[in-house]
């Protein structure tokens, strides 16, 4: 992938942080089996007998379906990038979306947990303008199991402000987005671009 440094897209760990021992969904299900309240919580995550998280399913644990930008100033409410279609994903690198300058917006992702339990998963994106890094967003997703009905989850991140002014409106901003866990497993990695404009 083009002009983004790999180090920028790695999870940030604070001093003293240690990764816990990796456990399978089955091992988690058997932990503290005598604790009734913990058993109920694990069942809510699909960790009980016959639970969806224990199902042996091949393929990726997580499928990222879309990335969205939402803003109160956006007439349609949100812009959505479909990540389920590879041809569409390729087009996002060449066809910038317009973002209004000087507004508040939020980035969000919609994803599906296919099997197992995910934790320590985060969304990271790095924005470059004229080859210079101008922004980095790193947000934790939380812990999830497959939803009982197979429906996806949506996570919206903190509000950000888009730059403004004549210089900010010059050229195209290139973004590389990644969903990665603490162990370095990458669930999606793609590029997209945008331009700042006076109006949406």
Automatic annotation (TrEMBL):
<dbReference type="GO" id="GO:0005094">
    <property type="term" value="F:Rho GDP-dissociation inhibitor activity"/>
</dbReference>
<keyword id="KW-0343">GTPase activation</keyword>
<dbReference type="GO" id="GO:0016020">
    <property type="term" value="C:membrane"/>
</dbReference>
<keyword id="KW-0963">Cytoplasm</keyword>
<dbReference type="GO" id="GO:0005829">
    <property type="term" value="C:cytosol"/>
</dbReference>
<dbReference type="GO" id="GO:0005096">
    <property type="term" value="F:GTPase activator activity"/>
</dbReference>
<dbReference type="GO" id="GO:0007266">
    <property type="term" value="P:Rho protein signal transduction"/>
</dbReference>
<protein>
    <recommendedName>
        <fullName>Rho GDP-dissociation inhibitor</fullName>
    </recommendedName>
</protein>
<comment type="similarity">
    <text>Belongs to the Rho GDI family.</text>
</comment>
<dbReference type="InterPro" id="IPR024792">
    <property type="entry name" value="RhoGDI_dom_sf"/>
</dbReference>
<dbReference type="Pfam" id="PF02115">
    <property type="entry name" value="Rho_GDI"/>
</dbReference>
<dbReference type="InterPro" id="IPR000406">
    <property type="entry name" value="Rho_GDI"/>
</dbReference>
<dbReference type="InterPro" id="IPR014756">
    <property type="entry name" value="Ig_E-set"/>
</dbReference>
């Amino acid at each position: 992938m083009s002009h983004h440094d790999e180090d920028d897209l790695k999870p940030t760990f604070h001093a003293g942080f240690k990764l816990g021992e990796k456990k399978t969904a089955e091992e988690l299900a058997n932990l503290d089996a005598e604790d009734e309240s913990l058993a109920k919580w694990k069942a809510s995550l699909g960790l009980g007998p016959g639970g969806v998280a224990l199902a042996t399913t091949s393929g990726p644990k997580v499928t990222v379906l879309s990335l969205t930008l939402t803003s109160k100033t956006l007439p349609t409410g949100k812009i959505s990038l479909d990540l389920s279609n590879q041809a569409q994903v390729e087009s996002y690198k060449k066809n910038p979306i317009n973002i209004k300058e000087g507004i508040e917006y939020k980035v969000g992702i919609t994803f599906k947990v296919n099997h197992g339990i995910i934790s320590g998963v985060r969304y990271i994106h790095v924005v470059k303008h004229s080859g210079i890094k101008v922004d980095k967003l790193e947000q934790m997703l939380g812990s999830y199991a497959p939803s009982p009905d197979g429906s996806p989850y949506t996570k919206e991140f903190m509000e950000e402000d888009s730059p403004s002014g004549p210089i900010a409106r010059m050229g195209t901003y290139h973004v590389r987005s990644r969903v990665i866990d603490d162990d370095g497993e990458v669930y999606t990695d793609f590029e997209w671009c945008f331009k700042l404009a006076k109006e949406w």
